[in-house]
Amino acid sequence: MSFIDSHNHIQDDRFGDSREEILAICVSSGVTFSAVNGTHPDDWPHVASLAKRHSFLVPSFGVHPWFINNLPTNWEETLRSYINETPSGIGEIGIDGWRKDFDPVEQERIFLSQLAIAAEKNLPVSIHGLRRWGRLLELLRNNPLPGCGFLLHSYGGPEEMIPSFAKLGGYFSCPGFFLSPGREMKLRVFKEVPEERLLLETDAPDQNLPENLDRYRLLTSNDTKRVNHPANIIAVYEGVAQLRGISIESLSNLAEANFRRLFAPVLNERAKTSPTDAP
Ligand SMILES: [Zn+2]
Q: How close is the Cα of 183 to the center of ligand 1, in Å?
C-alpha cells in the first residue's frame, strides 16, 4: 500500500541532522510520494537539492504568504529559473487572514503573480488560504488557472464552497491536525469532498497531530517542542478512512490516483530525469 503526503516542508531547519533518518523512515513505512514546498527564495536551493537526491520527493517552489516581507527584488526571475531547471510545482503560495503583520494588497499581488506562472506553464500549485477562503474563491474565479488543477492545502473552508472550488479544478488536502480534539467541524468537511478530489497531508514539521496519534515524538534540537514527523501521514490516512467509512486500501488507491492526476506535469518530467536516491 502506498501513502502520499501531498504537502509538507521537509527542508525546514527544525528537522536538523535527523532529516535523512526521517526520510528513510518515510520510505520504509510506505510513503511513495511526498510533496515538498518551498516558502521563500532562501529555502529553494535546499528543496532543489533534496529533490535531486530523493526520487520520492516532489518539489514545489514558491513564496509563502507569511514570507512576503523583504523579498529580493529579483525573486520572480529566480522562481522562474528554479522551475525551469527542476521539474516542480508552485507552492506554497496564497493569502492569509490569520496573521496580521502583512499588507493584504501586497500579499495578493505576490500570490497572483505566482499563480499566473503556474497557469502559464500548467504546473500544479499548492495554495494556502487560511481564514481567507471566500476571497480566495473570488480570486481563483477571476484569474487564469493551471489546467492540471490546484491543491487547497489544509482546506479549512466550509462544506458549501467545495463544489465551487472543485469546478475550478480544486483538490482538497486534509492535515492530521484536523484529527485533534476541537477540530471535529473542520474534519467533518472532508466527508463531503468528492472522492476524485481528496488528498492528505502532514504539513510537517507544522500542524502536529494529537499526542495519542503521534507515533514518532520528534522534538526540536533543544528537545522542547514537538515537531510533526512526515511519516505521521499514515495516521492521517487512518483517521480519514475512518471518517469516510472506507478501508485504508481504498483511500490509498484513490489518493494515489488523485495525486498522480494533479501532479502529472511534474511527475512526467521527473520520470525523464530520474533523480538518484541517496544511499
Ligand atoms: Zn505548508
A: 18
